[in-house]
């Protein structure tokens, strides 16, 4: 629809004006810092930051129902600056002018209900939200769109000049950072650090294809992250990991979209999120709390984080039921099929602790949980989901495995409806599917394929033929007829087909 198709009142609300009020707030000393420069940690105490809106109360002048209408009507508009995550402009980054918004097709990813057969196998009603259908094929585009819009704002309005962005990555962050930086070329260039040998070929190809400078670093993601932090602290670069609080703002849009998809009725809903660097689960909790405070939704869903037993520091922290006795301990990770979540020292852990505390204070105790699953369950669940019409990555398999684990523990019941986060596209992790089908996982993974879930191609080469067709050497006449007939008979026999 066109803007002029709406009433004068709707028109005035649909086009947002840039607002002031955003500040960096330190989660340690609680000090505020202005947003006229890119900060990652507090200059006073070094803790991580959240971006908060000191004028958030102004948004309460509109009713929750009015906000619902605004967001729903914006879905019908063909205005790039209001598509994707910036459909929720006032909740994401109201300081950003429309001409600074970067829209590459991110957000508005489909939420697909599982088939009846799959739901009966799992024992619960659930959906997959396919964030692998973002432009770089992962959820990271949500945060990158916000971070790059802010960088674009600094360039256009604050005289920032040319900027080099850097990030450490297990694959998805680098793909998103390189993609969005290339769109802003030549004003923004991209450099990414990847743990050597710990990124799939598909993920490595993405930043290379976008023209980023790629460095393969020995070790794991945590080692890359330390190098990137050193670069950000000592050189003129823009850090694009989730330590960047603008990334968190963009990733809140996942919560806004889920609420909208469910017609803003979240009673009995469980949101299942794999935890890696802990930025996404932090953002999702914060997004739901914003909507709740504005009365856009009248209840908060349960949040269920999931970690592999090969990389589970957040699970280990919350396995102590007494908050006063919990102690944070980073861990040395083991190889995991959920590569994007293979992080032993999440930079957003302070955000998780604070936001989970706020979340349960508002939603009630028992509305935030973290469960642990093993590598076998992750792979079995990914294959099971994709056998029933989904495109889940290994992290999506981790989400389904986490739902099953939570049901076994009695955390989630049949009365709940779950929304599972498939954070990336299945094809990014296709190598793990191949390893499953061929039964050649390294021993340390601890994965033994279920035979009924394995699949592999079978040759259909009929016997008794003198010649077979080949590229540049086709068969003709009776030879070709014989080839077609015998090949069809062979396949029919394999499939158990009956003759008409």
From TrEMBL:
Cofactor requirement: pyridoxal 5'-phosphate
Pathway: Amino-acid biosynthesis; L-threonine biosynthesis; L-threonine from L-aspartate: step 5/5
Modification sites for N6-(pyridoxal phosphate)lysine: 140
GO biological process: threonine biosynthetic process
Principal EC category: lyase
Family (UniProt): Belongs to the threonine synthase family.
Name this protein carries in UniProt: Threonine synthase
Organism: Dethiosulfatarculus sandiegensis
